[in-house]
Specification:
28 helices, 5 domains, globular, Arc Repressor Mutant, subunit A, 9-stranded mixed beta sheet, 44% helix, Rossmann fold
Length: 721
């Protein structure tokens, strides 16, 4: 493969980035839609084909399983060879690979298990209960978050100074208990994967030197999303004799709430000096007006590294800004616009509705259902997070290793087989006292129990032993199918009356398909079953994928990062919602909110609509809102302002005459939102909302003395004031 094949189709800045000398550090500031994945993969292809760098000498790190899979697929096509053993993956995936390879040096056994967030929560909850720590004062999720936050900083329990903070002191107690439990049971959570692999290299100088020498080129995607321990992990591999190639965008740093440090990307120029910075500013996604508006918005942030997106594809349509009366009106406008787009030839999947908070999705869903438009919420439960899949994998895990206490706890009485909590408490106590696993403890405890409990527990033990023996020589997909059928899971979910669509049984059958499609690396330190279990566990830490079907896409802006859609509706642009109330007094948080808005806007390819409501019912209360300051930061030449036609109800809207530009409330005598009225019984009030049509039409009015009431319009006998 010659150089022209590698650089074909790249613009000047992309070409410059890809063809940098192999002995040069680089920071590629890649704006939204500027082709960063293309640059990364072509850079690797350039190193391999033009600089004769062996694939084993390249470490390529990204953040999501989806991005890692895409990079692998593109590299396979570019290099025209399998790259299965190449060190390309997520931080968590590569850390896991290190720990599997050097488990003894990391203080683990070869059969260590990965905890997902749900399993971690259950363990923390149980430890708190066993140690009489009050959940009402110390919520489990907050304690769990505290533990993970310390690990993301690379900090152990003994290194935390609680000072006089009682919550931190109590959380530290749980942290110590939790770490002890995980060590005793050979468990690793997601945050531990990174901190343990960092400590593995830090505490083993010879091993660190081996990997520093091996990885002559280190490439990192989405560098602005790195947290403290991830930054340390990369930094310790860098010697000055090897090279780093970091791709990121400080304007898209939106994960501060989960530990990402925007200063990491700005520190690159110091910690990895000398380093060349190249800006990718040509955008291949959005129209000129969308980019100009986005540039103007983000320019209000201070301490930016500086970048301005542009396109040669033309200005396109103006950005619509819709002023809704209520969140219901907002949703109705958005869905009617989508309906019109579909009528004019767009696909439903060309349209995305983005929002700051998951709580905003409900009214959009209601409107989509009303207009019979198919939709999907992106970022819901991932496949391997579903209860039925975790149940199935529990059997796979326990039959692979009876030392897996997490799997034992999950399946010991599922499907129900008469093993009660009293029996399980005795098993747990025995395991704790004898320093053994729960399965071995069950074998020892069963003869001591009353006949009925003993038979139930023995039945489970014999089931696991029988299935383990019968399936030991089966290939992975056959093993999964056998365990699903013989455990009773298939029958249980087939007879589940609450699952009328049969989706849970279908998901179990899909797990068999996933096992068939699993491609195991023969050079891996893990066998096929452990590899599949690990893949499932690690998949829970990545991003969920929406099925590729013709549905309108609903998602939070955080979930939308990395995606693009022809038509984007960005809702809820109101003060205290977006930007959030919590961010308004903290400049760095407000900057992150603005970056989040920038990310949302730059998802749009052709049309962008921004909406806000004058009044919104959210979190159980009705609030009057002010338009978001972000709207004021967009120059007027890029926008088209649209308002609801006051006095209209949903029943008398026409598709082409719903919304007019700059319509003001009409004079007294017109029943409209905001109109002053007088009622014979309730006195003076203000019209808030309308509902229904004809004789059943209702009006919502906030009265000064009587509070808010819904009245039947035809009987209200209202007097305008």
């Amino acid at each position: 493969m010659n150089l022209s094949e590698i650089t074909n189709g790249l613009n000047d800045k992309q070409h410059q980035s890809v063809a940098l000398g192999d002995a040069q550090n680089a920071l590629i500031l890649a704006g939204a839609g500027s082709g960063k994945t293309r640059v990364l993969t072509h850079r690797i292809a350039y190193l391999v084909t033009q600089k004769n760098i062996h694939t084993d000498s390249i470490l390529a790190v990204t953040f999501t399983n989806k991005a890692a899979a895409e990079m692998r697929a593109r590299l396979g096509l570019l290099l025209r060879r399998p790259i299965q053993s190449m060190w390309v993956g997520t931080f968590h995936g590569l850390a896991h690979r290190l720990l599997r390879t050097h488990y003894e040096k990391a203080g683990l056994t070869s059969g260590f298990q990965i905890l997902d967030a749900q399993d971690q929560f259950r363990i923390v909850k149980r430890l708190m209960k066993e140690n009489n720590i009050d959940e009402s004062k110390f919520p489990v999720r907050k304690v769990q978050w505290f533990i993970n936050q310390q690990k993301d900083e690379g900090v152990r329990a003994q290194d935390v100074d609680a000072g006089y903070n009682f919550f931190i002191k109590k959380s530290l107690e749980v942290f110590v208990l939790y770490e002890s439990h995980c060590r005793a049971n050979d468990l690793i959570d997601f945050a531990e994967l990174l901190v343990r692999s960092y400590e593995l290299l830090k505490n083993n100088a010879e091993l660190l030197e081996h990997y520093q020498t091996r990885f002559s080129n280190i490439l990192v995607d989405e560098f602005q999303d790195t947290n403290t321990v991830q930054y340390k992990w990369i930094k310790q591999l860098f010697t000055g004799r090897n090279n780093v190639f970091c791709v990121g965008d400080d304007d898209q740093s939106i994960y501060g709430w989960r530990g990402a440090k925007i200063e990491n990307i700005t520190n690159l120029e110091t910690d990895f000096a000398p380093i060349q910075t190249i800006r990718l500013e040509q955008n291949y996604r959005s129209t000129g007006n969308i980019l100009a508006a986005s540039n103007a918005l983000i320019a209000n942030n201070s301490n930016r590294m500086g970048k301005s997106l542009w396109t040669d594809s033309g200005n396109g349509e103006l950005i619509d800004i819709y002023e809704a009366r209520t969140e219901t009106d907002e949703a109705d406008y958005v869905i009617r616009r989508i309906k019109k787009f579909i009528k004019d030839g767009s696909s439903a999947s060309d349209c995305a509705i983005l929002y700051r908070s998951n709580a905003q999705s409900r009214v959009f869903e209601d409107a989509l259902i009303k207009y019979n438009i198919p939709y999907i919420i992106y970022g819901g439960l991932r496949f391997f997070e579903r209860a039925e899949i975790k149940d199935a994998l529990g059997y796979v895990r326990l039959c692979e290793s009876t030392t897996d206490n997490v799997a034992f706890e999950r399946i010991v009485n599922f499907p129900t087989r008469g093993i009660g909590n009293a029996t399980l408490e005795k098993v747990r106590e025995f395991a704790k006292d004898q320093h053994t696993n729960l399965f071995q403890a069950a074998i020892q405890v069963a003869p001591m129990l009353p006949t009925r409990a003993s038979n139930a527990l023995n039945g489970f033990i014999q089931l696991i032993e029988q299935m383990t023996d019968d399936s030991k020589n089966l290939i992975l997909s056959e093993k999964v199918a056998y365990l699903l059928n013989n455990s009773g899971l298939i029958t249980h979910y087939a007879n589940d009356k609450t699952d009328k669509a049969g989706s849970k049984k279908e998901n179990l059958e899909e797990l068999i398909s996933a096992a068939k499609q699993y491609s195991h690396d023969e050079d891996s330190e893990m066998n096929e079953v452990v590899g599949f279990i690990s893949l499932a566990s690690l998949d829970s830490s990545g991003d969920a994928n929406a099925p590729i079907v013709d549905n309108v896409q609903l998602m939070t802006i955080h979930s939308a990062k990395g995606l693009e859609f022809p038509n984007v509706f960005l809702g809820g642009l109101e003060e205290d919602l977006f930007p959030s109330r919590q961010s308004k007094d903290e400049p760095h948080l407000l900057d992150e909110e603005r970056r989040l808005c920038y990310v949302g806007m730059t998802r749009a390819m052709k049309r962008l609509t921004l909406t806000f409501a004058i009044k919104r019912f959210l979190h159980g209360q009705s609030l009057y809102a002010y338009p978001s300051r972000f709207l004021d930061e967009i120059p007027s030449e890029y926008v088209n302002k649209v308002k609801a036609k006051f006095g209209a109800t949903q029943a008398n809207y026409n598709d082409d005459d719903i919304y007019n530009q700059d319509i003001e409330p009409e004079a007294n005598g017109q029943l409209s939102v905001g109109a002053g009225v007088k009622h014979g019984k309730f006195g003076y009030g203000t019209v808030l909302n309308f509902e229904g049509d004809g004789d059943s039409a209702r009006i919502q009015i906030k009265f000064k003395q009587a509070g808010t009431k819904w009245l039947i319009a035809s009987y209200a006998n209202l007097e305008f004031v």
